[in-house]
Amino acid sequence: MRRMATWLAVLAMVLGGVATATPASAQDKKPSVTDGWVKMPEAGATSTTGFATVDNPGMYAFYLISATSDVAASVELRQAGKDAALDEVTVPAYGTLDMNATGYHLLLKGLKKPLAEGDTVTLTVVNELGEKLSVDAVVKKP
């Protein structure tokens, strides 16, 4: 009987260790930003739009609250059809935010230099925890 109780205790520890290891490893996956690109601005334009895909492999949604770029004085989170900057954009749990011209996108204002097709710029989005996610974005014609 004593041997059976010891075996059950060992089994419980092993199974308990497996159960707690799985959620921790799931949380090791970090959000990422990919597929960045910037619309080539018209000659003389001081602003343009940027796009990227934000992937959230985690079990909790997070919120993009700001953005920056190395080629713009400021960057705003925007939604097509709205005339004002957004305070936040939700990236759903286990989901993806695909920025595009008819949905969410970045407005790069106060361009610091002319941009040419094929140039690479950095787009960085920041979540509510202050984490910065960056992507190299290629300037191209839509």
| Reported CATH architecture of the largest domain | Sandwich
Count of alpha/pi helices: 1
Instruction: Please give the share of residues in helix.
Output: 10-25%
Strand content: over 45%
CATH topology-level name of the largest domain: Immunoglobulin-like
Tally of structural domains: 2
What is the CATH class of the largest domain? Mainly Beta
Per the principal axes of the C-alpha atoms, what is the gross shape?
globular
Order of helices and strands: HEEEEEEEEE
Overall SS class: alpha+beta
Write down the Rg. Answer: 22 Å
The CATH superfamily of the largest domain is identified as PCu(A)C copper chaperone
Fold and architecture overview:
- The protein is α+β, with helices and mostly antiparallel strands and 142 residues long.
- It folds into two domains: 1-28; 32-140, Immunoglobulin-like, CATH 2.60.40.1890.
- The protein has one helix and nine strands.
- The longest helix has 26 residues, at 2-27.
Brief description of this entry?
With 142 residues, the protein is of the alpha+beta class. Helices cover 18% and strands 46% of the residues. It has one helix and nine strands.
What's the helix and strand layout?
Blueprint: H1 2-27, E1 32-39, E2 47-56, E3 62-69, E4 72-79, E5 89-91, E6 95-98, E7 104-111, E8 120-127, E9 132-140
Parallel strand pairs: 1-9
Antiparallel strand pairs: 1-2, 2-6, 2-7, 3-5, 3-8, 4-7, 8-9
List the main descriptive attributes of the protein structure presented here.
142 residues; alpha+beta; Immunoglobulin-like; 2 domains; nine-stranded mixed sheet; 1 helix; 18% helix; globular
